Amino acid sequence: MAKLKKPLLSLQAIGSLAKSISFRRSRGRTIAEKKPEVPDARTLAQLSWRHMYQKAVALWHALSAAERQEWESLARPKHMTGFAWFVSQALKPNPGLYLPLQGGKMAGDIDLDKHRVLKLPLPTDDQEAASKKYHDDNLPAGGYTEGCRVFKAWHQSIPDALQVDLIFDREDYDTDEMHDTVVNNERITIKTAG
User: Fold this and answer.
1) Calpha distance 159→162 (Å, rounded)
2) What CA dihedral angle connects 149, 150, 156 and 162, to 10 degrees?
3) Who wins on pLDDT, 68 or 133?
4) In which region does residue 117 sit, left (phi positive, over 0), alpha (psi from -120 to 50) or beta (all else)?
5) Is residue 101 within 8 Å of residue 56, measured between CB atoms?
């Protein structure tokens, strides 16, 4: 569809013809040029932002008429529409809003001044993140429990391009019987997973 301001075949045409050609004036001349096509990058950040915007729009449509009117009245002093004000507030970095938008549940208090989430329930699923306190409280006494530190008492020469077994004949500690200094002392056997 033509959106020209002056006749197309005149020397003063301005505007666009369909979605492919635009006419503009520059330094007293009319320039006809192909309209630029901006590719949609579809980056992960862009798709994520679009998703959040669509969620905010869906929340707007879920509001009652009274709630929409309240947003309209809040937006009026800012010279914005209620929809624009609602979406601008919905897209602010706010974990209390993003989590429910994505279908999650928020429990506990949010202290945004210190950027911490407080009083959340303790993790119950293997895939849930654990707090430092939860991790420290559930560590076995004395730190880690399975491990060994073995070493060699003397120097052992290793010729180039040859396979040589290193013989570990000394132990600092061996908490899970991983190493034997007499039988198969070049081998460390991991018995406990993790």
Assistant:
1) 6
2) -90
3) 68
4) beta
5) yes
**Helix ranges, the chain (H):** 44-62, 65-75, 82-90, 95-101, 132-137
Write the pLDDT tens digit of every residue in 65-75.
999 999 999 99
pLDDT digits (tens, 9 = 90+) for 79-100: 999 999 999 888 877 655 555 5
Name the more confident of 188 and 78: 78
**CA distances, 106 to each of 8, 55, 98, 110, 173 (Å):** 60, 17, 10, 9, 45
- The answer on pLDDT for 1 being more than 90 is no
Residue 88 CB coordination number (10 Å): 13
* Percent of the chain as helix, strand, coil, to the nearest 5: 30, 15, 55
**Global pTM value:** 0.36
As to burial, measured by CB atoms within 10 angstroms (0-12 exposed, 13-18 middle, 19+ buried), residue 71 is buried
Quickly tell me which residue has 């330094």 as its tokens: 27
Tokens of residue 178, six digits:
């991983």
Residue type, 120: L
